[in-house]
Amino acid sequence: MTLPLPALAPVEETLWVTLTARAFDSRLPDPILGDTMADELVRKTGYTNDKLRWTRLSCVDVAQRAKKLDEVARRFIARHPNAIGIDLGAGLDTRAFRIDTPPTVDWYDVDFPDVVAARRRLIPDRPHVHAIGADLTDPTWLESLPTDRPAVIVADGLMAFLAEADMISLLQRLTDHLHSGEIAFNVYNKFTVRAAKLTPSVGWLVPLFKSPGFDRLDPVRWNPKLTLIEEIMLAREPEVAKYPLALRLWTRLGAPSASLSRLGTVVARYRF
Ligand SMILES: C[S@@+](CC[C@H](N)C(=O)[O-])C[C@H]1O[C@@H](n2cnc3c(N)ncnc32)[C@H](O)[C@@H]1O
């Protein structure tokens, strides 16, 4: 029996894009991420959408960038066992389960209240994992979070949905409230935004984008507390070995060039 689908606003509905892509990847014989909980959630809700017809080719980007953000969080937590983790615009992602957060870590999944209500209904509780229902542009949601613990903040597929001024003030509030830590997200540069318009599986999302696209160095220009410490170009990462043949060959051809690699997805990691 399937559970009723949550009623969501269009921007909230975008959570299905990433969730169904990760679910598709998990069903492959040799997945990149292997997020079986995503698959369980899709099956549990019976969610289908004709616009989301994933293939081995089209799902790699979502699966790989989630894996990279998991690695950032996992490495940070290994170095700071008393850390807090924050997933901005978490949707129905179950990152805390994937990275298996230890009991010393408090993890916060933040998304709009309706999404958080759906999370509470669909995702099992896990000790020390908290859900915060808030609009990230609201300046008050951070107030309940501890200020004195190192923080790892990730945002997967979020930044395109924030206007530039909102992204700047969100970064400012995070680095003002939290003592120290890292923040990592996939960069939506101007090319990514233009390319999304032409990609059949995601082109319909573009009208929901509020960001005109930004450069990986923009956050450093906007916020002097941020230092760019890593630029993870997916085209240069080991998971390329699992890409379908044509994409693998094409990616490997361009990988020696940073400019070409930046035309693909980049996960930027900053310290504050
Ligand atoms: C593409 S989905 C990605 C969801 C999740 N990170 C994942 O990888 O499955 C974008 C998410 O950002 C959330 N979002 C967008 N703007 C937001 C805002 N202003 N406040 C809170 N959440 C927001 C949406 O509700 C949605 O869940």
UniProtKB/TrEMBL annotation:
Q: Does the keyword Transferase apply?
A: yes
Q: Example GO molecular function term?
A: methyltransferase activity
Q: Which GO biological process entries does UniProt record here?
A: methylation
Show the InterPro entries listed in the entry.
Answer: Ppm1/Ppm2/Tcmp, SAM-dependent_MTases_sf, TcmP-like
Keyword terms of this UniProt record = Methyltransferase, Transferase
The protein, known as:
Class I SAM-dependent methyltransferase
- Organism of this sequence: Nonomuraea helvata
